[in-house]
From TrEMBL:
Lineage, opening ranks: Bacteria, Pseudomonadati, Pseudomonadota, Alphaproteobacteria, Sphingomonadales
Family as reported in the entry's similarity comment: Belongs to the cation diffusion facilitator (CDF) transporter (TC 2.A.4) family.
Membrane topology label: Multi-pass membrane protein
Keyword list, A-Z: Membrane, Transmembrane, Transmembrane helix, Transport
Alphabetical list of SUPFAM superfamilies matching this protein: Cation efflux protein cytoplasmic domain-like (SSF160240), Cation efflux protein transmembrane domain-like (SSF161111)
InterPro entries linked to this entry: Cation_efflux, Cation_efflux_CTD, Cation_efflux_CTD_sf, Cation_efflux_TM, Cation_efflux_TMD_sf, SLC30A9
Transmembrane parts of this sequence: 12-31, 80-98, 118-137, 161-184, 196-214
Occurrences of domain Cation efflux protein transmembrane (ranges): 17-221
Protein name, UniProt field: Cation transporter
Residue ranges occupied by any Cation efflux protein cytoplasmic domain in the UniProt entry: 227-303
Organism: Sphingomonas hominis
Subcellular location: Membrane
Taxonomy, superkingdom: Bacteria
Principal localisation: membrane
Alphabetical list of NCBIfam families matching this protein: CDF
């Protein structure tokens, strides 16, 4: 399998969303130009922003895979989280901002709409393409979430690409429904301003999605611990060694979606020599990497249980 084919397969959600949004954006702008629909224009901007977002996430994934170096000893994995946060800001600043602004202009200076047929055709085609992208994103995220609920899985996910596309596509489908209602109502009631209100509603939806994405991306950017089940497995694996009398604490942080740094404080048997302790640490590290392959960096600190308790109390 070629590198390009493997990359497309690994990023099928992003590439699928990018292809759909580029085609949809062109169709929406053509429809908006022919009919004067404000909601169709804002939907076109929305699709352009979404396309740019997928490009940024693909760029972030590529940058995040760079190997560790002297300046970044834990690698560049968290750069993906930075670009995910940028995506959230772009959705709010450009997607939501332009939608609300265009809607406001259309309300204060309404334009008479022409035959809405082309709008309905474009909306139907866009819904089909956007729905296909949404289905792919939902399928991939469902496969990765396991038994967790949808919102719990999103909150605990350490790979922002999957849930960002899912959120974007969900917002896009909601926007298309609002745009269709706006076009229909403006003609049904003979008031072109209704289309402007629909554009503002689309902007509000995008603003809500952007706020949710920003919150999740901020947590990843600052640094989040690994899943509690991972922490429990690490603790059990360390405690199982006969020369470990107690595991004081296990602290983890994701340095990338598939990379975890773990720091372990454990009480060693007092009879161990320095050489035996070094050998034991090496054995524990090998066991941990077999138990959880995502552990990229392991730090094990020998510490008396009483000292660890004192340090914890002082920190509080």
């Amino acid at each position: 399998m070629s590198d390009l084919t493997a990359r497309i397969r690994d990023n099928i959600v992003l590439f699928g969303a990018l292809a759909a949004n580029l085609g949809i954006a062109v169709a929406k702008f053509v429809a908006a130009g022919m009919t004067g629909s404000s909601s169709m224009l804002t939907e076109g901007v929305h699709s352009v922003v979404d396309s740019g977002n997928q490009v940024l996430l693909l760029y972030g994934q590529k940058r995040a895979k760079r190997p560790a170096d002297a300046a970044h000893p834990f690698g560049y994995g968290r750069e993906l989280y930075f670009w995910a946060f940028v995506v959230a800001i772009l959705i709010f600043a450009i997607g939501a901002g332009v939608s609300v602004y265009e809607g406001y202009l259309h309300i204060i200076e309404p334009e008479a709409l022409t035959d809405p047929t082309i709008n309905y055709v474009v909306i139907a085609i866009s819904f089909a393409l956007e729905g296909s992208s949404w289905w792919i994103a939902r399928r991939e995220f469902k496969a990765s979430k396991g038994d967790l609920g949808w919102w719990q899985a999103i909150h605990q996910s350490k790979d922002p690409a999957g849930f960002i596309v899912l959120f974007e596509d969900s917002a896009a489908l909601a926007g298309l429904v609002i745009a269709a209602i706006g076009v229909w109502a403006s003609h049904a009631f003979g008031d072109p301003r209704i289309d402007g209100y629909a554009s503002i509603a689309i902007g509000i939806v995008l603003g809500i999605v952007a706020a949710l994405l920003a919150r999740e991306s901020k947590g990843l950017l600052i640094g989040e611990r690994a899943d509690p089940q991972v922490v429990a497995r690490v603790r059990e694996a360390v405690a199982a060694h006969p020369a470990i009398t107690a595991v004081n604490h296990v602290r983890t942080i994701h340095t990338a979606p598939d990379s975890i740094f773990v720091a372990i404080s454990a009480d060693f048997d007092d009879s161990l020599t320095m050489g035996q302790g070094e050998m034991m640490i090496e054995q524990i590290e090998q066991t941990l990497k077999k138990t959880e392959p995502r552990l990229s960096s392991i730090y094990i600190r020998p510490e008396k249980a009483s000292d660890a308790i004192s340090d914890g109390a002082a920190a509080r």
